[in-house]
């Protein structure tokens, strides 16, 4: 008897959904670099991040600001040393916003606990109303 699991087919069910990008290694190099930057910042913000074709661009280099607690030690994020990890909902939302932005500038991304929490965007208009 074969004990290997088998896929079950439904005759009228919806087609299988496309795989979602929910882990760090599923992302492009620039997107991985952006999430790693957030981990390094831990608390702070990124200003002036350029986006081209939905991908973060690090030339010109965005401004990075790190908040330092003077009454406590700031530790590194646990995920910082992991080669791969599940993405939080906030990171997935940011990536979806990058896709929607296409080309433009993210004026500011606020980072808390190494996670993007809020962003201010300046979209580039592809067409100018006449």
Jot down its keywords.
130 residues; alpha+beta; 5-stranded antiparallel beta sheet; globular; disordered N terminus
Descriptive account of the structure:
It is a single chain. The protein is α+β, with helices and mostly antiparallel strands and 130 residues long. It has a domain at 24-71 and 83-123. 20% of the residues lie in helices and 26% in strands. It is built from 2 helices and 5 strands; from the N terminus they run H-E-E-E-H-E-E. Strands 1, 2, 3, 4 and 5 form a 5-stranded antiparallel β-sheet that branches. The longest helix has 13 residues, at 29-41. It is globular and about 45 Å long.
How is the secondary structure organized here?
Layout: H1 29-41, E1 44-52, E2 55-57, E3 63-66, H2 89-101, E4 104-112, E5 115-123
Antiparallel strand pairs: 1-2, 1-3, 1-4, 4-5
In short:
The protein has 130 residues and is of the alpha+beta class.
**Range of helix content:** 10-25%
Q: Characterize the main sheet.
A: 5 strands, antiparallel
Order of helices and strands: HEEEHEE
Mean pLDDT: 79
Number of strands: 5
Distance between the termini: 72 Å
Total DSSP helices: 2
**Oligomer type:** single chain
């Amino acid at each position: 008897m074969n004990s290997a699991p088998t896929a079950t087919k439904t005759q009228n069910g919806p087609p299988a959904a496309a795989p979602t990008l929910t882990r760090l290694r599923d992302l492009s190099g620039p997107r991985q670099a952006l999430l790693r930057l957030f981990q390094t910042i831990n608390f702070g913000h990124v200003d002036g991040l350029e986006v081209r074709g939905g991908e973060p661009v690090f030339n010109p280099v965005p401004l990075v600001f790190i908040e330092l607690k003077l009454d406590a030690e700031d530790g590194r994020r646990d995920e910082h040393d992991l080669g791969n990890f599940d993405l939080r909902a906030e990171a997935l939302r940011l990536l979806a916003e990058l896709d929607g932005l296409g080309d433009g500038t993210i004026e500011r991304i606020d980072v808390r606990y190494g996670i993007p929490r809020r962003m201010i965007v300046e979209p580039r208009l592809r067409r100018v109303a006449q």
